[in-house]
Amino acid sequence: MKKLIYAVTVLAVSTAQAATIFVDAADCPPAFFDCCSANDTPGCDDPACEAVVCAIDPFCCDNEWDNFCADEAADLCAVCDVGSGTAKDPYCSIQTAIDNAVDTDEVVVAPGTYIETINFLGKAITLRSTDPNDVGVVLNTIINGAGSGPVVTCDSSEGANTVLSGFTITGANIAGSGGGMFNSGSSPTVTNCTFSGNSAVVAGGGMANVNGSSPTVTNCTFSGNSGPVSFGGGGMANTGGSSPTVSNCTFSGNSSDVSGGGMFNDSSSPTVTDCTFCDNSPDHIAGDPVVLVGQIQMSTFCPIPVCPGDLDGDGMVSINDFLALLAAWGPCP
């Protein structure tokens, strides 16, 4: 009898097939994202939902509609109970699809703007747009953190079979690290994505890889990300023994108040191949030059614009430039 039960169990496991889950915000109620996601303002756009949530949690109406309020809305409000994940009845929320997915599932997201932040929750799933190879689709399939963040999180030991492909990630403005994407102790696969218009105070406006994360990042664009004042890395920051593999990516127009406008590295060993770095400020890449030697290959670096007062060439005018001027004071040879 035990052998028979075992055989049936093995058969059930071996015949299981990955499911495809669909997401499309086009037909969602107008108040869906305002109530069912954090909006950082008091209350939400659906009066009935607002009333029921604030009755049990006045903070949501007196202060701000944060992630806790959004979770309460998901449990209590009809406006959040939308879709079943099929092609004919897709979910409105990407996170709802992730919550209902299991390993090997594929989540396909239609073009549109999704005002939410998402967490892969350790699942080995593929989350993609309808066509990650179509630039127009990528630019129009947007996950917008709307001032929250990280927009995308992998912090549950995700591996290479956790895939993010074909999205524009934007709108993060956070006090921590990894505005656009935060990877901690995780190594997902990220392809054909654009990280733009994100900021983080600590490190990695576009992406932060920390605590031994080694994601594979391919064919991605990091542009217009900014803000780190503690560590650095407007476009990407790699810290704590992280070793991302970055190839065929563009880092442009990113900025940091410290260093590593394009990419910042601290106790980490990225492998960078066939990438382009342009118009990043104050510099393109920062990190231990001994560690980085041989790990940045076949990449293009646009010249950093010369600042007349930057005598030591570090990308900023500071006391060091003044000291250099004093040291050279006197008649020219």
What would you note in describing this structure?
The chain is α/β, with parallel strands linked by helices. The protein has two domains: 18-92, no CATH class; 105-305, Pectate Lyase C-like (3 Solenoid). 20% of the residues lie in helices and 24% in strands. The chain contains nine helices and 26 strands. Helix 3 (47-56) packs across helix 5. The model is unreliable at 1-15 (pLDDT under 50).
> What's the level 1 CATH class of the largest domain?
Mainly Beta
Computed over alpha carbons, the radius of gyration is 23 Å
What integer is the average pLDDT?
89
Looking across the biggest beta sheet, what order are the strands in? 1-2-5-8-12-16-19-22-25
User: Which structural class best describes the helix and strand composition?
Assistant: alpha/beta
Number of separate helices: 9
Helix content: 10-25%
Strand fraction: 15-25%
Query: The biggest beta sheet, please?
Result: 9 strands, parallel
Separation of the first and last Cα atoms: 98 Å
Low-confidence stretches: 1-15
Bulk shape = globular
CATH topology of the largest domain: Pectate Lyase C-like
The overall number of domains is 2
Total count of strands: 26
The CATH architecture name of the largest domain reads 3 Solenoid
Short description:
By secondary structure, the chain is an alpha/beta fold.
Top keywords for this entry?
nine-stranded parallel β-sheet, Pectate Lyase C-like, 26 strands, 2 domains, alpha/beta, 9 helices, 333 residues, 24% strand, disordered N terminus
